[in-house]
Design brief:
Length: 153
């Protein structure tokens, strides 16, 4: 999809570069002559744009919705859809916060013990955990212990 502005530019190029008439240039491109002749009647929004940019510079974390509130407090009446269009045209955006801090450099490798230490063995043992046995008696409970080699229990 080609924008009307691009079509106008192409017709102007054909007219200036090749000396074509407007009618022939439009026919060659395949666009309507009214598209080329159209002149916008949009009012000048210089005051709103300047004030919006000024507020966005001093309040970098404000998005277009918060800017709308600030502009209305100052007495500028702007439609939210129009303000969003102006916000995008001015290439304004909320500044992103920094990401998660990560470790710099290489980390030391984790040491693997050659034999189990007492503290390590104590952490590995599950302890008096209870759970229902599926068979043969569903009402009875059974204690589970993880057997760690090299311990007396």
């Amino acid at each position: 999809m080609v924008t009307p502005a691009a079509k106008r530019k192409a017709v102007a190029h054909l007219r200036e570069g090749f000396g074509m008439s407007e009618r022939r240039a439009c026919k060659a491109i395949g666009c309507c002559r009214m598209t080329v002749r159209y002149e916008t009647s949009r009012p000048d929004d210089r005051e709103v744009r300047e004030r919006m940019k000024a507020i966005a510079q001093e309040r970098r974390r404000f998005g277009y919705r918060r800017l709308l509130v600030m502009l209305r407090r100052e007495g500028l009446v702007v439609n939210h859809k129009k303000l969003f269009r102006l916000y995008r045209e001015e290439k304004l955006a909320v500044r992103r916060r920094g990401g998660r801090k990560r470790a710099i450099g290489t980390r030391a490798p984790m040491l693997v013990p050659l034999r189990p230490e007492r503290a390590l063995v104590a952490r590995l043992r599950i302890g008096p955990a209870h759970r229902r046995a599926p068979l043969p008696h569903p009402g009875r409970r059974r204690r589970l212990h993880e057997r760690v080699p090299g311990t007396h229990r």
